[in-house]
Design brief:
Helix content: 25-40%
Structural class: alpha/beta
CATH class of one domain: Alpha Beta
Strand content: 5-15%
CATH architecture of one domain: Alpha-Beta Horseshoe
Number of helices: 27
Length: about 700
């Protein structure tokens, strides 16, 4: 009866979805996951049955974040449209059993295949690749036990035609690289731990022989990202050894992302010298030790560069302008620039300069003028203090970059200099930003309405003006220059945090309210904003930024109390599109009221809470998980006992795993000595995207992989 009444209402209004043109319907259907299209929607009527199998919808199948897909759905999907699929992305489908990969053999016409994060053995990989003769792009993981000798002749023939390879290494190995003799793009992710689960030290030595030598003669893009650890450094040096013997003539992108110290050797120096002589680059990223104190940048030649990363280098602004930007020449081709942790990049020289000294606005002005088409800019993890010169504030200069889509700034860089100088010391500024005894202070009442905020003259601030000028910004990170997460990668949890920069002491609710001007904002990170008193600005963001999908808040306001809890709960009630939420705050109480507010986020998929001395209510967590059907990841690292954490984790898994195949639950004491062992079992997709805190703006070149 409801269907009949609905149809009659449509007829009376003269609107029928099926009367739309095929082009419009295809556009609408493109927003529906392929599994739903093929297995459900196409069974509704004859017209949709035809449209759902249109080549525009079946050519590329994306399963990488379809958390509801299971083995049976994949099997049926491949059976129905396998021959029509040319690009298949199953990255991060960690919950699918390895036998699921067997069904990919039905996709005879595959050109691109992404299996990163999937369980694939050497034998299964061999069987699958033997049937994919048209494959040109491949992404896989290399896990302990991988044996290249198990790859068949047919498999190696397929690999010999592959031109793009992304390989994530969890064990010292060349993987399938030696079989890929036509490589043009090679992406390597080194995730090898220094110790095995049994506690044995691992070695980075590989078997060296004729069959193990990589073939780089056609290489155009070389990218390597290293997780912390000396084994990763040992293994990447073996991959680089072949490059140092003969640098590919067509190499135009050379990128190595390495945390900590990665010393330069004779072989790497020869490689860089050869690159300086023989190639012209469009993208560059090197370990800081390879750039610091060397004249390398002066000799490297660039063509039409689109990406530079000098993260954590001691490169001065003078060298940046002279050697990279060629004295301010046109660099309109540059779309992504990462200067994170580059503490002297906006100063003329670094020899006698303190990190907290004012920046040289002339250098930033030259940078902005030369790179006017920047879309991604990262200036975080440094003290970029503007002088009192009128019109030369960092925010005022950055407002000229009208094409920015993502931006990362230190907290101290957005403060209004004049206001900071004139403002007398208040009780809130004198509160120590450390753990310990709570200090009672008078709290200024902040208006909760956006119009009232404007009346308090925040519209005249330089940061408010910056946010107003970057209307199309999608990603924003405001991170304290001395902030460090309580959860580093392969180390115990950090127990103490450094105090915020003095210039950052005035940054608080009004600056957060200014962010609400970003109508198209999709991802927001706020860390170590010391002057958050009520969090009222968060409510404005919840109301105005309706496209927000990712929210990360860390160490806001006083450290001894979560002063913004009420505002956060009000904000969450408006975040209908929010998918990922990460909260890192000491003494956070994950109770019934919080989870009730969080239940309004109907699209939420992943939740991560990191809180020293934090508490949780098990019943509230269980109720939240029962009501929030889309949540497939729940990570909570709190101050509760191991028993409480284990019992809650087991209860969640036991109650919801059957209906949510991708469910990943980790609830564990933050300061427990076995935290690193627990972290190593977290799927890389979640660990890299949300659980571990880091700046993600311009972390990699845009469109590095599809």
């Amino acid at each position: 009866q409801e269907i009949v009444s609905g149809e009659s209402e449509e007829e009376s209004n003269g609107v029928n979805l099926m009367e739309f043109s095929d082009e419009i319907l295809l556009h609408i259907l493109s927003y529906i996951p392929c599994t739903d299209l093929v297995l459900n929607v196409r069974r509704t009527c004859r017209k949709l049955a035809t449209l759902c199998l249109d080549k525009s919808l079946t050519h590329t199948v994306l399963l990488q974040k379809d958390y509801k897909v299971n083995k049976d759905k994949v099997k049926q999907l491949m059976r129905d449209i396998g021959k029509e699929i040319y690009q298949l992305n199953m990255a991060g489908c960690y919950w699918l059993p390895s036998s699921t990969i067997d069904h990919v053999t039905r996709c005879k016409n595959l050109v691109k295949l992404n299996l990163s994060g999937c369980h694939v053995t050497s034998l299964r990989l061999s069987k699958m690749l033997s049937t994919l003769q048209h494959l040109r792009s491949l992404a896989i993981d290399v896990n302990p036990g991988f044996d290249a000798s198990q790859l068949s002749t047919e498999c190696k023939a397929t690999l010999s035609r592959v031109s793009e390879l992304k390989q994530t290494l969890y064990t010292p190995s060349y993987g399938v690289v030696p079989c890929c003799t036509s490589l043009e793009k090679l992406l390597l992710y080194f995730e090898i731990l220094d110790r095995s689960r049994e506690g044995f030290m691992l070695s980075g030595q590989l078997m060296v022989g004729e069959s193990n030598v990589p073939h780089y003669q056609n290489l155009r893009v070389f990218y390597a990202r290293l997780a912390p650890g000396y084994v990763n450094q040992e293994v990447v040096r073996l991959y680089l050894a072949v490059l140092s013997d003969r640098t590919p003539e067509n190499l135009h992108a050379f990128l190595i992302s390495a945390p900590g110290s990665f010393a330069e050797t004779g072989a790497t120096k020869n490689l860089l010298d050869s690159m300086a002589r023989n190639v012209r680059l469009d993208a560059l990223q090197l370990p800081k030790a390879w750039i610091n104190g060397s004249g390398l940048l002066q000799h490297l030649k660039f063509n039409n560069p689109f990406y530079f990363s000098f993260s954590r280098c001691t490169l001065s602004g003078g060298h940046l302008i002279q050697r990279v930007i060629n004295g301010g020449k046109d660099l309109k081709s540059l779309t992504s620039l990462n200067l994170s942790g580059c503490v002297h990049c906006l100063a003329p020289e670094s020899l006698f300069r303190k990190a907290e000294d004012d920046i040289d606005s002339g250098i930033l002005e030259s940078l902005v003028a030369s790179c006017c088409n920047l879309r991604h800019l990262n200036l975080s993890a440094a003290h970029h203090h503007s002088s009192e010169s009128i019109g030369n504030h960092l925010c005022q200069l950055l407002s000229r970059l009208k094409h920015l889509l993502s931006l990362a700034l230190p907290v101290c860089s957005i403060t209004d200099v004049a206001a900071n100088v004139e403002k007398p010391s208040t009780a809130s500024n004198l509160v120590p930003q450390t753990f310990g005894r709570k200090v009672r202070i008078g709290i200024q009442t902040y208006p909760r309405n956006l119009a009232d905020q404007a009346n308090r003259k925040i519209e005249s601030s330089v940061f408010w003006a910056l946010m107003g000028s970057l209307r199309f910004l999608e990603t924003l990170e405001i991170i304290g220059s001395s902030f460090s997460s309580a959860m580093p990668r392969n180390e115990p949890a950090i127990r103490n945090s450094l105090p915020p920069c003095v210039r950052a002491q005035s940054v608080g609710d009004s600056e957060v309210a200014a962010i609400s001007q970003l109508t198209y904002l999709q991802s927001l990170t706020l860390a170590q904003l010391p002057n958050i008193l009520t969090g009222s600005g968060l409510i404005n963001i919840g109301l105005q930024c309706q496209h927000l999908r990712t929210l990360s808040l860390a160490n806001l306001g006083m450290m001894g109390k979560v002063v913004y809890m009420s505002a956060l709960m009000d904000m969450l009630k408006h975040c209908k599109c929010l998918r990922d939420l990460r909260l890192e705050q000491p003494y956070f109480c994950a109770g019934a009221q919080f989870f009730q507010a969080l239940s309004h986020c109907s699209s939420l998929q992943r939740l991560c809470i990191v809180s020293r001395s934090g508490t949780l209510q098990s019943d509230a967590v269980m109720s939240f998980m029962a009501n929030s059907l889309e949540v497939i990841m729940c990570h909570m690292f709190m101050g509760e006992s191991l028993t409480v954490c284990k019992n809650l984790q087991q209860s969640i898994v036991r109650s919801f795993q059957a209906d949510r195949p991708a469910l990943n639950v980790v609830i564990f004491p933050l300061l427990h000595e076995d935290l690193t062992e627990v972290i190593r079992d977290v799927p890389m997709r979640h660990l890299d995207e949300i659980t571990l805190f880091k700046s993600r703006v311009a972390e990699e070149p845009p469109n590095l992989w599809w």
